[in-house]
Amino acid sequence: MRGNRLRILTFTAIFLFFSNLIYSQENETFSPSGYFYGKVFSNFHYQLNGHNKSAFEVQRAYLGYTYHLSENYTINIKLDIGSPDQESPYDILKRYAYFKNAALIYHKNKLTLNFGLIDLHQFKVQEKFWGHRYIYKSFQDKHKLGSSADLGASAIYNFNDFITVDLTVMNGEGYNQLQIDNSYKSGLGITIIPITDLTVRLYADYIEHEEIQSTWSSFIGYKIKDLAKIGAEYNYQINSGFRKNRNQNGFSGYASVNISKKIELFGRYDKLWSNTLRGEPYNWNITRDGSAVIGGIQYNPIKNIKIAVNYQDWYPYAKNLDNESYIYLNLEYKF
Known about the structure:
Blueprint: H1 2-22, E1 33-47, E2 54-68, E3 73-82, H2 89-92, E4 96-108, E5 111-119, H3 124-130, H4 139-142, E6 149-158, E7 163-170, E8 185-192, E9 198-208, E10 212-224, E11 228-238, E12 248-258, E13 263-274, E14 290-299, E15 305-316, E16 324-334
Antiparallel strand pairs: 1-2, 1-16, 2-3, 3-4, 4-5, 5-6, 6-7, 7-8, 8-9, 9-10, 10-11, 11-12, 12-13, 13-14, 14-15, 15-16
């Protein structure tokens, strides 16, 4: 009860503050304007083992519109068009359009407030640092330790050039699910840049159903000017799926080197593992535990196009499951 009251009070405070700002005085000389934008992830892939499957695929297409109402207020609406996150080959062929964003954004000085169907900040820093979302999702997104968007409210405050704090209260169901209960997920993150080109992030969230589920993550990344960058993250989820004592651990490390202005080499290693319950011979999530390796070369012919040839594999820890190895040709094109 105490945790629920705290989340409700936090949500109410954000909402009231946001509502109060709506009536603040605006600069009458501002001219409202907007723009459309879009992004597509597509690929051709060939399986190196097993059944040697191959296919052309459009993984995702985003279409959105941003409209600046004033110097401080912005509306952002974005559609996410893609297949549902299910493993059935029949489901992969389907295409659904979801609202990924339907948000009202307030920004002034060091403060940014978001309300509605909003982008979440749980792994935004890691995803941006990885820089190859069109090839492979960031770790938390890939293994469903959190969602990239949800219904709720968030506040981001830049204290200075070194510290940024973000607070979010959300439904906790994700952007393609409806709220079906009275539980809310609260998340708190802090991003620190102690020296130039070094980024550190800490994050934790909390949601309660049958059990309390909490996700903790840490990240550190370093850029060597425009030459290279290296990053690593560790993630830990308690009572995964609201099941008592079922915890998950995850590590992801990635690096890239620019060999010219248009050509980049990149690599990544992931590891996901779960704990073993008392009296059980295997990890409770053994069928999904495993490690992945991604590596390849990226080419930017022009600003808004990325092309990458890369190798991807997944090695499950369950001995009765086969390894998966693929060669991919991935493309990202946007406007």
